[in-house]
Amino acid sequence: MKAQHTKPLVLICSDDANFYVLLAYILAREGFQAALVSEDEVADQAAMRPVTAIILVTGEDSGPTLRACAAIKASDTTAHIPTIAVVSSGDERYYLALLKAGADENFVRPISPARLLAYLGSLPKNDANDARLPDADLEEARTFGHLRIEPGRRIVGYGDQEAQFGPIEFNLLRCLLEALGRVRSRSELIEAAWPADCYVQPRTVDVHVGRLRRSLERLTGRTLIRTVRATGYAIEVDESSD
């Protein structure tokens, strides 16, 4: 019997029932399934089943959203899950706070369905059937000195250690690695890591690169990314075979 296909799951935290229904309808038309969860339970729910993305919708009080985002990114089980924050127009002051809490992307209401779907469509589908895909369907792993990346799963390895990175950080890392020692400008990094129709502020790039730098330091015990003032970023890795 042919296995039943499981639709990619998106968890949505929202106190606005009408907005949740709208998001769920938009996602369903593009082949996703949505589930409504509270800020208090989202991290636990995401750890229990395959999740493609999490959408956090801020209310009048952004505190619960910030705490939920931090809880998701603090767990090794859920930190890699792309987390999207949706803020109301006029609440853009929460933008950097959410990024610092770990949000991978921010959208301002009224949300653009095309932009949201473009972002979700760029993500690997964390589908229960993915494990059945042959290895040939995944992009081959690449090695840069002692650093190894597996694009199909967004895995970064160093020695016998490995970690799964979020989509933005992984794309930034791959862009930097493909030009070892050369400075990548912020515009180059934006082009490599974000959807084409997404406006990204330079400060947003800095926040994500900072997050990537810290993740690599935890994995390797070394500082690999250097900042070139007023220009961009570059990465240096030990290319010896020892």
Furnish the topology, listing elements before pairings:
Elements: E1 9-13, H1 17-29, E2 33-36, H2 42-48, E3 53-57, H3 63-74, E4 83-87, H4 94-101, E5 105-108, H5 113-121, E6 142-144, E7 147-150, E8 155-158, E9 161-164, H6 167-177, E10 184-185, H7 186-193, H8 202-220, E11 225-228, E12 232-235
Parallel strand pairs: 1-2, 1-3, 3-4, 4-5
Antiparallel strand pairs: 6-7, 7-8, 8-9, 10-12, 11-12
Question: Can you give keywords for this protein?
Answer:
alpha/beta; 12 strands; four-stranded antiparallel sheet; 242 residues
Entry summary:
With 242 residues, the chain is an alpha/beta fold.
Would you give an account of this structure?
This protein has 242 residues and is an alpha/beta fold. It is built from 8 helices and 12 strands. The chain has helices at 17-29, 42-48, 63-74, 94-101, 113-121, 167-177, 186-193, 202-220; strands at 9-13, 33-36, 53-57, 83-87, 105-108, 142-144, 147-150, 155-158, 161-164, 184-185, 225-228, 232-235. The strands form 3 sheets. It has a 5-stranded parallel β-sheet with strand order 2-1-3-4-5, with helices on both faces. A 4-stranded antiparallel β-sheet has the order 6-7-8-9, covered by helices on one side. The chain has a 3-stranded antiparallel β-sheet with strand order 10-12-11. The longest helix is centred in the C-terminal third of the chain and has 19 residues, at 202-220.
